[in-house]
Design brief:
It is built from 1 helix and 2 strands. With 58 residues, the protein is an alpha+beta fold. The protein starts with 24 loop residues before the first strand and ends in a 7-residue tail after the last helix. The structure holds zinc ion (ZN). Zinc ion binds next to α1. Zinc ion (ZN) binds next to α1.
Length: 58
């Protein structure tokens, strides 16, 4: 069973009881850990994320 994700930016947790909830964005960091972005943060930061260099270049 998958643990309930929390947003890496706002810390919000996904409401897994709502089947109509929009999908969360899942990312893999350089350590292979899963990071989540809630739909609001994913939308707000989509351009930042795409413009950014990969994490290993930071
Ligand atoms: Zn968020």
């Amino acid at each position: 069973m998958e643990p309930s994700p929390s947003c890496q930016l706002c810390g919000g947790t996904r409401d897994t009881t709502d089947p109509a909830a929009p999908a969360w964005a899942r990312e893999r960091d350089e350590h292979g850990a899963t990071r989540w972005l809630c739909p609001e943060c994913a939308r707000r930061h989509a351009r930042d994320i795409e413009a950014r260099l990969p994490v290993e270049w930071w």
